[in-house]
From TrEMBL:
Protein name: Alpha/beta family hydrolase
Sequence ranges assigned to domain KANL3/Tex30 alpha/beta hydrolase-like in this UniProt record: 24-206
Pfam family, one: Abhydrolase_11
Ranges in coiled-coil conformation: none
Natural source organism: Streptomyces tendae
Record-level Gene Ontology MF annotations: hydrolase activity
InterPro entries tied to this protein: AB_hydrolase_fold (IPR029058), KANL3/Tex30_Abhydrolase (IPR046879), NSL3/Tex30 (IPR026555)
Record keywords: Hydrolase
Keyword Hydrolase: yes
Keyword Hydrolase in record: yes
Amino acid sequence: MTETVETDAGPARITWHPAKRPRLVLAASHGAGGGIEARDLKALAAALPEHGVSVALVEQPWRVAGKKLAPAPKTLDTGWRGVWPALAAPGLPVVSGGRSAGARVACRTAAELGAHAVLALGFPLHPPGKPEKSRADELLGAGVPTLVVQGGNDPFGRPEEFPEAPAGTYDLIEVPYADHGFAVPKRAEISQEEALELITAGVLKWTGSLG
């Protein structure tokens, strides 16, 4: 089921993958370089509804408009705020999520929007090759239970680069060998399918632990 939502940044689009007996909604947006066809988003949308989690994949207004370049973070946040009432309409707790730039949006707006938790897929801790330009403050400032799923070879931040934080601030799942889009090379010791299973199983376990 696809729903178009008017926002102050233009029309956004939600593609719903509903659970039969939902207890949570996972709302997830794409990154700055792709859409909701990303392998991790597709895998979660296929796996979670069977376990009581409805998945809402959100296309930001710039993607709906057919533009190739993402706008400034402030505009992305505006688009996310605009779709939030539709995401919350089922009356269930909403986990705010996204991959890459979408993960940053989820972290920045979680407390303000009343998100139940945050799922950050491929959090871009820093621009490639520029670890000094850290975005850790966005992640640490989410203010709600947060799960980071990160590729072991992500040039935007490998798991070992993430800062230590007080217990309960965030948890991190590493996907070995994976890059920023969770692609694994053919020579890796795990297959692409196994990498995606790591992601879906980890997210399922985490959503099951949320009160």
